[in-house]
Fold this sequence. Notes:
Elements: H1 2-16, H2 18-71, H3 77-82, H4 85-94, H5 99-117, E1 120-123, H6 127-136, E2 147-151, H7 178-185, E3 189-194, E4 206-207, E5 211-212, H8 228-235, E6 241-246, H9 252-258, E7 261-262, E8 288-293, H10 296-306, H11 309-314
Parallel strand pairs: 2-3, 2-6
Antiparallel strand pairs: 1-3, 4-5, 6-8, 7-8
Helix pairs in contact: 1-2, 2-5, 8-9
Amino acid sequence: MQQQQQLRQLLLDWEAGPPTALALLGGSIAALAAWRWLGEQQIQRKMEEARRSRDRGVKKIEKAVQQFREQVSRVQSADILSLPLVELARRLREGSLSPETVLYTYIEKALEVTQQTNCLRHFIPECEEQLQEIRRRKEKGLLYGIPVSIKDHIGHKGHLSTCGLVQFLNAPVQEDSVLVQVLKRQGAIPFALTNVPQSLFSYDCSNVIFGQTLNPLNHKKSPGGSSGGEGALIAGGGSILGFGSDIGGSIRLPSSFCGLCGLKPTSERLSLSGASGPINGILSVPGALGPMARDVDSLALCMKALLCKEMFQLDPTVPPIPFNEEVSP
């Protein structure tokens, strides 16, 4: 608005006398250039702070893994990482594996995978609090002790949902999304947020803030998008169960590119409440949140856990249709 008023004034001044108008024009152009430069500097500072925050999170979680390793020196990491989700969940519920051991084993592997592929946007340090929370409960949910990763724009309290855009770098989420709330009630432990392409509308996985994510199977290839960070992390072994979103292939493409199984449920089968997006009000082409994992049995267990009374109570717009075990694999 201010620039428009300046231009109108220039036209009036030109009628009064060209030399005066030229002088004012030069001043206006200089002001606009300075205004643009200041804006670019502010954007650069926001991006640098976001990267520093990510680095601080990595160092904090590395320290936590190191402390765990000092306390528990003998951990069969390879054996834990090789277990299918269904078997891992069974062992955690029966107590033959501890949630601490599984969580820190996967965090350690995720650190390795993201160093190679840049698939993580941020670790979730609060996962240690969630770990203690589930230990205090008497009832164990279907996903008790399972470490899970979530796509950048699926809201987790205290963390950003950037969608790969600078404009969302200064507004941490105030409340967990419904999906995250249900996961926690089922005993899962969200431990990482994964990278996405700018604006989410891309078959690749790159943004100007956190950079390019690589395919763990071939670093010269893309992991796909827009749930590319999830695809890379799971395919690299750093997560056993992850959550993406899909409108035109954003779960299905990364799953295909990375050799995984992914499910785009019917729209509104799982709550979208708390999942942000770069554009609001898209009604004709609805999206969906869905799981990504190594095999179909993992997807079935995940959907069985999520389609519970908590999901239907927290978001009344979700049809209260429970999981049908008769049609599951």
